[in-house]
Structures are given as structure tokens and as C-alpha cells.
Design goal:
The chain is an alpha+beta fold. The strands form 4 sheets. It has a 5-stranded antiparallel sheet. Strands 8-7-6-3-14 form a 5-stranded antiparallel sheet. It has a two-stranded antiparallel ribbon with strand order 4-5.
Amino acid sequence: MCTAATYKTADFYFGRTLDYEFSYGDEVVVLPRNYALAFRHMGTLKAHYAIIGMAYVVGDYPLYYDGINEKGLGMAGLNFVGNAMYQEVVEGRENIAQFEFIPWILAQCASVVLTNNPPFPQQMFLLNQYMHLSPKQPVNTFCEQLPLEQYSRGMGALGLPGDLSSTSRFARVAFTRLHAMSGESEAESVSQFFHILGSVDQQRGCCEVADGKYEITLYTSCCNATKGIYYYTTYENHQITAVDMHRENLDGETLVHYPVVKGEHILWQN
């Protein structure tokens, strides 16, 4: 049950959580402009925009979970339960397999429309249920005759859902993202972005998808779409790791791989 979000300070940021019960073997992969990007039914793109993102590489082909291109466009593949459809190949149309869709778009486009599951208009409509929520402390509008008092900080957000369903996670990350405040620097912006998506982290043991199998937040990404930097943390490693696509030869012809840094990195102070 993945979640994606954006954030804007001096630069534009895009990222997601990838929530699943196991990993296929993730790597940060830079796809340079002259990598021959082959498609099953659409030939080969030999020149295109450069891409950076998290992917599972099979036979030197990047199966991207999410990423950005050099123009600042970001895209992520999330789970569309009940909405995904797989069409037959039709002559005269652009026939793109589902695993080709992210590189097909990012290789050629500088802007694209967002979609969502449940559909974005439905998610936005459901936010009407939370219009009374506020980061401010509440006042007693229940009854002036009753001496109702605040007994805790944060009571303005009473009613914000805490379960792991997609609609509840959308409401929670929307509330967090819309009220988040940070400085304009890169460090402050990136740190705050990870805090925003941290509001929907999944912990092992809380979402059982099969006997003894639990969905967890395998990784969280934060892409500076303006500068082409890919940041990430993982379930076992909370240290933020970064790869800058512009430090690579973007006119190259071969993929650049960076295996995910594993294991918790703890800074001892004594």
C-alpha cells in the first residue's frame, strides 16, 4: 500500500514509500541519454532523456519502481488494485507493457498527469470528512455550558485516521504535507520530506498480507526533481543516502548501478 507525495521549497521534491512484504533486489539506477531503451512492441529509443530512480534490473533492463528524468518529471508505480487493465496489442496504437511504462514516459516527456487509486477525485472528496482538523489547539464549540478543556497537545487533529488503508494513509499524508514547514535549504527540505512520508511508514507486524508475511515500508525515496538527486532510506537503514545523476556521464550508453545500502548505520558518540 504505497504512498507518493510532492513538496516545494526552493526546489521541487517528489518521492514515495514502497510498501510490500519482500524486496526483489533494489538498486538506484541511472539510465543515460544514449542507452538503447528497447520496448516489446515499440522498437528501441536510442536517444532520450536521462533517468534516475529505484529499479530492479533484469537482463540489463531497468524495471523502475519510481524515478525522475533530467527535465524534472517524476513518476512512481503504485498498486492499483481493481483498476489495472491489460489490453491486447492493437496495431496502430502505442503498445506499452506495464513494466515499460515508467521509462517510456520519463524517456520522452517533460510533464504528465497524475493518477491515483482510489481515483484522485474520490480521495479529494473524502477529505471533506476532515475539514474540521487543524494543527491549532481546538476551542469548545460542543457546548458553552460544559467546562470542556484541552487535556493534551495536538487535539486539533483528533479524528485524523491512523489505520493502514489507502484512503486513511492519503488523508494522513495530505494533512502532514499541507501543514509541513521547513527552511529552504537542501538539507532542511530533504529532512522534512522524509518526515512527511514518515507519517505513513509501515512497521513489520502491523499489516499481515498472508500467514506470517507482513507488509513493511521497504524504502522511502525523495527526489530533488530540480537538481536530479535521488535520496532514499530503507527499513533497515534510516541514514539518508543520495545519488546525483549529474555526477554521472549522462551521454553514456550503459546503465549505472548503485546497490541499496543495507544495515542500520549508527553513529556512536562514546
